[in-house]
Amino acid sequence: MPSSPPVIADFSVLPVSIPPLPSFPKSVVHYLYVRRNTPKIPTPTDARSLFLTNVPVDSSDAHLRALFASLVGAGRFQSVSFEDERKEAQSQSPLDAAQPVSAVRLLQAHGSASKKRKREDEEAERAREEAAARLPSTWTRPLRRSGCTAVVLLADEKSVDQVLKAIAKLHRTKMYPTWGENLPEGKVPPLGSIWLKAHNRLSYPDRDALQASVDAFSELFARREQEAAEIAKRLRNEPDEDGFVTVTRGGRNAPASRNEAEEAKRKMVEKQEKKKEELINFYRFQLRERKKAEQAELLKRFDEDRKKLSAMREKRGKFVPEA
């Protein structure tokens, strides 16, 4: 098997033996590059995480779990996050797409009614709504981009050190782990023609399942739109810090009650009176400062005149009239 340096820059080189396939009946060595995870924005789990690049295109959670088990034993590997999965999580979800533009702006600026519930309940409900509104998947197993990256989370910091030491040992023994070895039976769907046939079958989902996803999406859209309408109705009666009332669309909503309007007007008058008082006090401060400056100027001029008069007297000397 070809040799490779054990370390390149700050990456440890992890050689993996790829077994022969019907499409390519030769055994080859694939190189993964591993280092401690040091993202630009630190997280609490960085100390027990590893950053991997150049992962094989057919990588899965089960593949990497078996690979790390062959290096340091079972129980060390916890989870893996692939680059494409992270990007998909950051992109727009069905829950975000199911919001009208006006609803998005109002909910971002003023919050939604669901804020009163506990955070755990919100996250659980959000996950259920996303799952219900998402269309059925058409692939039994994803393929990664060539040269894709991943972040592996291990049990503790000691496991990270053990993995890096095990990688260094591989270069001395030349006994490389085999990719896809010891995978649980039925855990990873096969690729090839079976994979493509399954994709063709899943591209035509069951009509009832598809209708359920569409109904969930429509219901989610309508509820978000209703929340935005309620916020817009409330904003029509609440003046901002400058005393202005936000003008919002939705004239079909019922007008505000008289009590709500009077309360909003009272708050606006109080804010205006407070600003007026602050302005008057500011002018008083200016008047006091100007008077002090004028008094200081008068005292200065008086002192200068007094000094000039004394100098003139000394210059003239004692006057003695002629007899």
TrEMBL record:
<dbReference type="InterPro" id="IPR040447">
    <property type="entry name" value="RRM_Rrp7"/>
</dbReference>
<feature type="domain" description="Rrp7 RRM-like N-terminal">
    <location>
        <begin position="8"/>
        <end position="199"/>
    </location>
</feature>
<protein>
    <recommendedName>
        <fullName>Ribosomal RNA-processing protein 7</fullName>
    </recommendedName>
</protein>
<feature type="domain" description="Ribosomal RNA-processing protein 7 C-terminal">
    <location>
        <begin position="202"/>
        <end position="321"/>
    </location>
</feature>
<feature type="region of interest" description="Disordered">
    <location>
        <begin position="109"/>
        <end position="133"/>
    </location>
</feature>
<dbReference type="GO" id="GO:0006364">
    <property type="term" value="P:rRNA processing"/>
</dbReference>
<comment type="similarity">
    <text>Belongs to the RRP7 family.</text>
</comment>
<dbReference type="GO" id="GO:0000028">
    <property type="term" value="P:ribosomal small subunit assembly"/>
</dbReference>
<dbReference type="InterPro" id="IPR040446">
    <property type="entry name" value="RRP7"/>
</dbReference>
<dbReference type="Pfam" id="PF17799">
    <property type="entry name" value="RRM_Rrp7"/>
</dbReference>
<feature type="region of interest" description="Disordered">
    <location>
        <begin position="248"/>
        <end position="271"/>
    </location>
</feature>
<dbReference type="GO" id="GO:0034456">
    <property type="term" value="C:UTP-C complex"/>
</dbReference>
<dbReference type="GO" id="GO:0032545">
    <property type="term" value="C:CURI complex"/>
</dbReference>
<dbReference type="InterPro" id="IPR024326">
    <property type="entry name" value="RRP7_C"/>
</dbReference>
<feature type="compositionally biased region" description="Basic and acidic residues">
    <location>
        <begin position="119"/>
        <end position="132"/>
    </location>
</feature>
<feature type="compositionally biased region" description="Basic and acidic residues">
    <location>
        <begin position="259"/>
        <end position="271"/>
    </location>
</feature>
<dbReference type="Pfam" id="PF12923">
    <property type="entry name" value="RRP7"/>
</dbReference>
